[in-house]
Write a sequence for this structure.
């Protein structure tokens, strides 16, 4: 097996020990990107020169006897809404390509590089992150490595394709309503959406500031945890970041689910999806020995509120561009944004006011439960180009409705790990959400680690 | 709120007010999204006057 099919931590171990040089890893990753990206549509920019320079610097540091970081030599890539010095931050759009190249890297790019990881490029995404499909009108769709005719999910679609396709072991994405968790579910990956305000968003192009989160996708829980830990820490450049000390998780995840009070979410989270979504939850619950089901009152209203906030805040962000460059948008994104600009302000305010009440409902639940399990998506990956599906007994638009189970949870900023579950004989996976109280990413990661260790959740490179 | 939500009237008025061009190609999808938004708004619960707005939210 190629080192590239393994974990970032395994690569870092090999680089630190001298079994392989960082330059050899970077060259292998760049060769694999050149070979596989044409059919996956994952990368929009490859930063080959930068990657080789960084790798060479790591090798030189090792030769001098310096201690290398926990992700030394591990290739990673970022959704193209992250600033990468020298590249225009396109955020999936045609319009942003006219912007000057980024002067600096985003904070999280700098932090992963400080841990030794090697940036190899920027990744395809749905335009302006208003997307759950992984399709892009300007760059073409990212394709699901497990079935090239299927969606990756979005909007971090290139991130899903890159990691599931074995192009990088780790990728960064953003998650406003589910855009890390949906590609994790469709592409068979682990994805972490941390607590709102945990990781700095400085140097990234926003979508809905009051809901935007950043986080990693990976093929192992160890990589998810290690990369998340490397990115923690205060950053005055992001005014929405909470003033909290880092809470490292890598040393905790091997505790697994032992001693945790876990329940599945019923009610809203147990209806409306395809059977596969609920079968995945049942399998996870069975494996964890969980028989308790609880309800989170108000979830449907929370999803509605998140939907309205997204429409109005997103529209406000893009109003000038909608006036002057409407023809340069992806029509499916543009028309949702235009509608959002027209909504009564009272709806947006009512929606924002509901966050506190719904958060209080969730905190009451967490008084005697540590972790909640719910479906991540209502179905496995639809076909690329599919416009409608049947959900809750009605034919509905795909694009606005893939996030029915993710939206209520990001609405109140809860940390969630998406974990992929497979069914024998079925090509595509489906994810479950492992939901923890605010600031307790460690609990969600511990449960995910237990599921990975027990073989209930797995994130293989496609075709291996 | 009135039971007779008219997305077409809202769209025409707001497009002119906001300076947005509502071409025939855009009109149908925009009305669809306005209808969906109205369905969503109908799901929001009534809140106390004192309910705290959360434009910047700290979990």
């Amino acid at each position: 097996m190629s080192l590239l099919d393994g974990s970032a931590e395994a690569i870092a171990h090999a680089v630190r020990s001298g079994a392989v040089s960082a330059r050899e890893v970077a060259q292998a990753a760049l060769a694999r990107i050149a070979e596989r990206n044409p059919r996956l549509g994952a990368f929009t920019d490859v930063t080959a020169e930068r990657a080789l320079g960084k790798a060479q610097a790591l090798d030189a540091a090792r030769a001098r006897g310096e201690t290398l970081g926990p992700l030394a030599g591990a290739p990673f890539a970022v959704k193209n809404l992250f600033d990468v010095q020298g590249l225009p931050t396109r955020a999936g759009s045609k319009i942003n390509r006219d912007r000057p190249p980024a002067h600096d890297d985003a904070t999280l790019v700098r932090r992963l590089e400080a841990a030794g990881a090697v940036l190899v490029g920027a990744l395809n995404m749905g335009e302006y992150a208003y997307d759950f499909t992984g399709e892009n009108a300007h760059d073409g769709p990212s394709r699901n490595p497990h079935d090239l005719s299927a969606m990756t999910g979005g909007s971090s679609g290139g991130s899903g394709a890159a990691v599931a396709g074995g192009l990088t072991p780790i990728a960064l994405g953003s998650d406003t309503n589910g855009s890390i968790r949906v590609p994790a579910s469709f592409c068979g990956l682990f994805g972490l959406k941390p607590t709102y305000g945990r990781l700095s968003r400085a140097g990234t192009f926003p979508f809905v500031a009051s809901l935007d989160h950043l986080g990693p996708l990976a093929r192992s829980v160890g990589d998810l945890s290690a990369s998340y830990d490397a990115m923690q820490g205060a950053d005055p450049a992001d005014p929405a970041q909470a003033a909290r000390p880092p809470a490292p998780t890598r040393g905790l995840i091997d505790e697994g689910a032992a001693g945790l009070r876990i329940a599945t979410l019923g009610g809203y989270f147990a209806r409306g999806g395809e059977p596969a979504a609920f079968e995945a939850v049942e399998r996870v619950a069975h494996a964890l020995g969980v028989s308790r089901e609880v309800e989170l009152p108000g979830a449907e209203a929370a999803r509605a509120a998140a939907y309205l906030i997204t429409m109005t805040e997103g529209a406000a962000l893009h109003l000038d561009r909608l006036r002057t460059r409407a023809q340069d948008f992806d029509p499916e994104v543009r028309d949702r944004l235009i509608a959002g600009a027209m909504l009564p302000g009272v709806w947006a305010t009512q929606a924002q006011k509901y966050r506190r009440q719904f958060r209080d409902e969730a905190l009451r639940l967490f008084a005697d439960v540590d972790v909640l399990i719910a479906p991540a998506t209502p179905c496995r990956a639809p076909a690329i180009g599919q416009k409608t599906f049947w959900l809750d007994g009605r034919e509905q638009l795909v694009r606005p409705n893939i996030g029915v189970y993710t939206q209520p949870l990001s609405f109140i900023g809860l940390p969630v790990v998406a974990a992929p579950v497979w069914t024998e004989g079925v090509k595509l996976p489906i994810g479950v959400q492992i939901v923890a109280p605010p600031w307790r990413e460690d609990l969600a990661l511990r449960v995910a680690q237990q599921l990975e260790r027990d073989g209930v959740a797995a994130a293989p490179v496609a075709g291996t | 709120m009135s039971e007779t939500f008219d997305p077409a009237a809202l769209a025409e008025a707001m497009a002119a007010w906001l300076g947005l061009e509502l071409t025939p190609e855009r009109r149908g999808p925009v009305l669809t999204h306005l209808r969906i938004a109205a369905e969503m708004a109908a799901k929001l619960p009534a809140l106390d006057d004192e309910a705290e707005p959360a434009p910047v939210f700290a979990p």
Remarks:
- The radius of gyration of chain B is 15 Å.
